[in-house]
Amino acid sequence: MPKNTTKKDTKGTKSTASKKVETKKTPVKKVETKKAEVKKAPAKKVEAKVTEKKVEVKEVVKTKKGKKESKVKVLIAKLMDNTPFVVAACVVVLLLAALILVLCLKRVPKTSNGDEILATVNGKTITANELYEALKEKNGTEELVSIIDSYIADKEVEITDEHKEYVKEVVDYYKEYAEYYGVDLATFLANYVGLTGITTEDEFSEYVLEDYKKTVAITNYIGEKASEEDLKEYYKENYSDKLTVKHILIEVDSEAEDKEKADEEAYEKAKDLIEELNDTSSKKLDSKFEELAEDNSDDTATYSNGGLIEDFSKKDVLEEFWDAAYELEDGEYTSKPVKTSYGYHIILKVSSTPVEEYKDVKDDVKTAYAESLLNEDSTLFAAKWDELRKEYKLSIKDDIIKKAYKKTVEEATKVEETKTEE
């Protein structure tokens, strides 16, 4: 993950008039998401097919049907008490049966070669085959592949509450933007995101879920195909103890004409704060640190909470920050300011949790490893889907669509080869 970002300020802003309300930098790395494309943090793989939602629907239908049947039985019982009504009912049933028979015998008109006729205009006949040929040359490949991938995703992924919560977050995210722009969700999606044809929130939820399932499926696929060596190497580089610290950031004035002087002033201020901590008894150290953080820290994401950053690992923060924090004992603070790209930090270590063993977090490592590869290579998603379709024995019978599909995969491969050469 990139290192030049901030941790979102969820603690509010300081009421003191002298405090800047600008968003400053926490040493936390950026977590990039693509809400629009919905290709983000897939969950763990589970084997079973997506059945939960379908089962729920079937149960509802069954319940409703049961109620209707009971009402019909009551009605029949009442009718049976009166013979004329029974005769009338039989006549009605016979008439309905005759009507159904006529409708069933109705045939769609066809040409001499058996092609269905969809429409005629001024003597011109438009057949189903003509429509199919016209559509497949435009976006037929895209639509066919979408259907295929949906089938595969259903086989590969079982929808969990975590997936549903993710979909809800994405939908709410876009609803907020639509509200901000003063338009309904469908208008916002069409005009600002480029998603046309979606008219309701439920339709958008289905779209997001469908896209997310495909992302989860391919992420699981990449993780399962990864070698043990690659996974262990990724674990070694990215998994570590989890630390909780409090910190004070003294930012260097980036707009100062004399950069060297600004850097020196920030360093001296941080050094003076450490001197204040040195003069504080161990019993009052924690409260004193929080007080200094609230009054002096330029990190608006943490200063109002005493500079607290909880449960972060090595991959979550800047290297210099991690190294300094990791070396401290619990309850110990840095004896000199720690320099990062954000300025100078004073770090007080609160606690640490030992890293989990590889065997205990292997599934998480697979997911994280796959996500890192997908983030690094924008063409990998398409390439790996091609592999997965082949494992499902995909065979495209139509020559035009087969050619278009092959071209799409080849273009994605060429892009990756060009990047590799560069």
Describe the protein's architecture and organization.
Among the domains are: 54 residues; 115 residues, Chitinase A, domain 3 (Roll). Helices cover 56% and strands 9% of the residues. It is built from 13 helices and six strands. Strands 4-3-6-5 form a four-stranded antiparallel beta sheet, with helices on both faces. Strands 1-2 form a two-stranded antiparallel sheet. The two termini are 22 Å apart. The relative contact order is 0.13. The N terminus is likely disordered.
Describe what is shown at a glance:
With 422 residues, this protein is of the alpha+beta class.
- From the alpha carbons, calculate the radius of gyration and give it in angstroms: 32 Å
Structural class: alpha+beta
End-to-end span in angstroms? 22 Å
N-to-C series of helices and strands: HHEEHHHHHEHHEHEEHHH
Low-confidence runs of at least 5 consecutive residues? 1-24, 30-89
Beta-strand content estimate = 5-15%
Helix content: 55-70%
Number of distinct helices? 13
Q: Strand order of the main beta sheet, please?
A: 4-3-6-5
Query: Mean of the pLDDT scores?
Result: 78
Please provide the count of β strands.
Answer: 6
Q: What coarse outline follows from CA principal-axis ratios?
A: elongated
Broad CATH class of the domain at 241-355: Alpha Beta
The CATH topology annotation of the domain at 241-355 reads as Chitinase A, domain 3
Largest sheet: 4 strands, antiparallel
**CATH architectural category of the domain at 241-355:** Roll
